[in-house]
């Protein structure tokens, strides 16, 4: 399975502009360009929490797909929002555990311009 092509063909992630830029060996990275449509605030670009969550979920799933070579539906995701995302966002994900039924991935979301940690997440995905 071409993992990057798989995520490029995901309509919701494509609509948001999520780009999975690296995906191999249980590690994935992705980028999201912040636009007015993704902001929760009219006066300043500030990423809606759902946008940050979706970036984390997509990049987390990509990290696991790179190991199991099949789609991995999300079972659960926990996210802590640490700072406002006021510009483009960047996420890094690493698989913590890849079992026959379930996989766990840690994801960090950063401000792309200054590397401020925006959110910290842990996703659980179905692998089997």
Task: Summarize the topology.
Layout: H1 3-8, H2 11-16, E1 18-24, E2 27-32, H3 49-68, E3 74-81, E4 89-98, E5 102-111, E6 117-126
Antiparallel strand pairs: 1-2, 2-4, 3-6, 4-5, 5-6
Protein name: PaaI family thioesterase
InterPro entries: Acyl-CoA_thioesterase_PaaI, HotDog_dom_sf, PAAI_dom, Thioestr_dom
Pfam family, one: 4HBT
In brief, what are we looking at here?
With 128 residues, the protein is α+β, with helices and mostly antiparallel strands.
Number of helices: 3
The 3D shape can be described as globular
Tell me the structural class. Answer: alpha+beta
Proportion of residues in β-strands: 35-45%
Strand arrangement within the widest β-sheet reads: 1-2-4-5-6-3
Tally of strands: 6
Mean pLDDT: 90
Series of secondary-structure elements, N-terminal to C-terminal = HHEEHEEEE
Instruction: Give the termini distance in whole angstroms.
Output: 16 Å
Low-confidence stretches: none
The radius of gyration over CA amounts to 14 Å
Q: Work out the helicity level.
A: 25-40%
Strand count, sense and barrel status of the largest sheet are: 6 strands, antiparallel
If you had to describe this structure to a student in words, what would you say it looks like?
The chain is α+β, with helices and mostly antiparallel strands. It has helices spanning 3-8, 11-16, 49-68; strands spanning 18-24, 27-32, 74-81, 89-98, 102-111, 117-126. Strands 1-2-4-5-6-3 form a six-stranded antiparallel beta sheet. It starts with a helix and ends with a strand.
């Amino acid at each position: 399975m071409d993992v990057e092509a798989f995520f490029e063909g995901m309509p919701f992630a494509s609509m948001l502009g999520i780009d999975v830029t690296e995906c191999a060996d249980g590690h994935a990275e992705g980028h999201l360009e912040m636009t007015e449509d993704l902001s929760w605030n009219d006066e300043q670009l500030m990423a809606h929490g759902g946008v940050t969550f979706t970036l984390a979920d997509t990049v987390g799933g990509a990290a696991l797909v790179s190991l199991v070579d099949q789609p991995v539906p999300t079972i659960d995701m926990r996210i802590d929002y640490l700072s406002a995302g006021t510009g483009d966002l960047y996420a890094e994900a690493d698989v913590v555990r890849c079992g026959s039924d379930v996989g766990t991935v840690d994801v960090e979301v950063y401000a792309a311009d200054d590397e401020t940690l925006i959110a910290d997440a842990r996703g659980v995905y179905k692998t089997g």
